[in-house]
Amino acid sequence: MGRTFQYCLLVYSVIDLASTSPDDPQLTFEDLYQYGKYEYTDGNWPDCVAFMKRALEDFQYFEDELVWCRRKCSQQVEAPGEDVLSQKHAHSERALCLLRCKRDRFTEDRPPLKRMNTYFDFIERKPFQYMHICYWKMGDLDMAVRSAYTFLVKNPSDKDTLDGMAFYMERPGYHDGMLVDTLRRPYEERFISGVKAYNEEDWNRCVDDLEVSLEKTMEEDSRCRLLCEDKIDWSVVDGNPELDVLMTSMQASVVRCQHNCLYRLALINGHNVGHLLATHYEYLHFCYYKLMRGSEAARSVANFLLFDDNPLMRRNKYFYNKQYKNEELFVPDERMLDIYKQRTLEERYLNFIEEKFKFVNNEFPPERQDDRKKFDTSVSVKDIFDYSAVRKLLTQIECKTLRSVFPVKHGDQILEELEERVKLLWPTAKFETRSCSRNARLAPCPRAIVLSIEHDDCSEWLGAMHTGCAVVFCT
Prior knowledge:
Blueprint: H1 2-16, H2 29-42, H3 45-76, H4 84-106, H5 116-123, H6 126-137, H7 141-154, H8 159-169, H9 186-199, H10 203-227, H11 243-259, H12 261-265, E1 267-268, E2 271-272, H13 276-290, H14 294-307, H15 311-324, H16 334-356, H17 396-402, H18 411-425, E3 430-442, E4 448-452, E5 461-462, E6 465-474
Antiparallel strand pairs: 1-2, 3-6, 4-5, 4-6
Helix pairs in contact: 1-3, 2-3, 3-4, 3-6, 6-7, 7-8, 9-10, 10-13, 11-16, 13-14, 14-15
Protein name: Leprecan-like alpha-helical domain-containing protein
Signal peptide: 1-20
Family: Belongs to the leprecan family.
């Protein structure tokens, strides 16, 4: 009875001040979320929604203030010198700045985060898993669908919510306009709009939307990286560790979280779009090309290849190079080069941690000389792929044999030898198909190598959509 009375008092303040910063700093999203779950269990549907909405707002407020403080303190502290104590002092200055900033923004009354599991529930959008049911019980189909859809965007294989969504779709009054991700970020809005423009062949809008989406993606990645600065895996800290052991564990947790930001951002509208930066340029290069902006198309190809070595994009570079005959066009943007270098070094560091700190059968891996070497910070950005080698993969005699409509004695042997040659350029390549047709057809895999076996262009490197006789390898 006491708990119910307390909730009644809280609900009124929650509803009245739902759009402001917390009126009671001691009442955080952790508490509000728990209260919402209690109301869900008790069948108090309006109170369930009110607490969950208020919890989501406080969570957004919490993250925004953290980002603001961390960005401010990173910018205000002067860069340290090279000596160790100077760097330690800079860390101390930033720590002091953060403590003051958090106290100022949150006030001394707000308690610290109690359980990281609750924080991750909000990252996974768990409140919406309760809200869609509470809305349905209140008779609000529109908000039930929106809440269920918002949860499914982050958790597309959750069976219970999928079943709930299927149920809602069969109710009178349902329409597809209700399928709204209420937490969709600006970069997602523009990316989805840009891809839609691409499919509609609206090349100007495609460029406008995807360029803005790229900028917003960078902003979102920066925000995500700042939010990673307290994502420390304390489970690996055992007993009374050495300072270096403790620092390595903490740093690896943070770097791993930061490196994964772009992977997490790539889940758009419930679909993983692959490497998010590369995917932007996959669309942009073609839209630029259609607008006769050749230099920007070439630069987009170069940007793509920093992050993804898809042979179809290498073929685009081969095609543009033949058309424009200017290798200097394929220079990536400075910002993309910086991101590529940063991610390469992060991956190198994390690989070292994963390989060297494995503890199997109570033993670490055997000691090696490179365990004590200085960290290699060199990163090559040169495209060393041998584009000219593709035209030498097949001879005219081999092309003639492979396009024969009759079984040829040495046909299979030629394909085996060709696969070995192709593997010198693409080590994971496997023969997929050999076919002839006047009709245009699409390669059967998303990372295809398509080689012509026609007489006039034997061993020519074709695109995914092709005609005539060709052999296809997949990577």
